[in-house]
Design a protein that fits this description.
Chain lengths: 117, 116
């Protein structure tokens, strides 16, 4: 168990809908990352937050947004869902205490499997 | 951008034999390299990382990896494979040199099958 929790484990919804994925980082970790894993794209970085602020953006669609709250948990919002959004969404956290160049290890949660029908 | 490549799709090995999972990298500057393992319906588990120093890195569950700068490789190894090592293995590299950007770029993954 990495200490990173994600809810829900599974989510089944219809095209055009909106969902929210939730992540609680390991105790003491200030940085949260979101990744998407799909069969055709593999594991792709979406976005990183550090202590409530966005730090890096990857291949995240405009329909997707995220935030990190004062208690450091994070939410990934996916809207106007399409069939191609079906994937496993992982959250990871790391200490990143300095906020700068880091070799911190990212610890991953169990993921949320999203199925769009 | 930094990147890693895992040239094989699947690695088959008999139980008790040495296991090697290959990874090559392409980076500007110093490479920060990681190995993760994913079991079915589970998240990614950290195995080990190379930051600097000794080229042989020891990690969890008896795994180790050898960093080779001249060959730009970071192969994962285990002296004696177990059936329970059957899983999907990912090599990753820190993808950005920008301050505060700690994103990882992953390889496509290697399915390891350990045959009893």
């Amino acid at each position: 168990d990495s200490g990173v929790t994600q809810t829900p484990k599974h989510l089944i919804t219809a095209t055009g809908q909106r969902v929210t994925l939730r992540c609680s980082p390991r105790s003491g970790d200030l940085s949260v990352y979101w990744y998407q894993q799909s069969l055709d794209q593999g594991l792709q970085f979406l976005i990183q937050y550090y202590n409530g602020e966005e730090r890096a953006k990857g291949n995240i669609l405009e329909r997707f947004s995220a935030q990190q709250f004062p208690d450091l948990h994070s939410e990934l919002n996916l809207s106007s869902l399409e069939l191609g959004d079906s994937a496993l969404y992982f959250c990871a956290s790391s200490t990143l205490t300095s906020g700068g160049t880091s070799t911190d290890t990212q610890y991953f949660g169990p993921g949320t499997r999203l199925t769009v029908l | 951008a930094q990147s890693v490549a895992q040239p094989e799709d699947q690695v088959n090995v008999a139980e008790g034999n040495p296991l090697t999972v290959k990874c090559t990298y392409s980076v500007s500057g110093n490479p920060y390299l990681f190995w993760y393992v994913q079991y079915p319906n589970r998240g990614l588990q950290f195995l080990l990382k190379y930051i600097t120093g000794d080229n042989l890195v020891k990690g969890s569950y008896g795994f180790e990896a050898e960093f080779n700068k001249s060959q730009t490789s970071f192969h994962l190894k285990k002296p004696s494979a177990l059936v329970s090592d059957s899983a999907l293995y990912f090599c990753a590299v820190r993808d950005s040199l920008l301050y505060g950007n700690n994103r990882l770029a992953f390889g496509k993954g290697n399915q390891v099958v350990v045959i009893p």
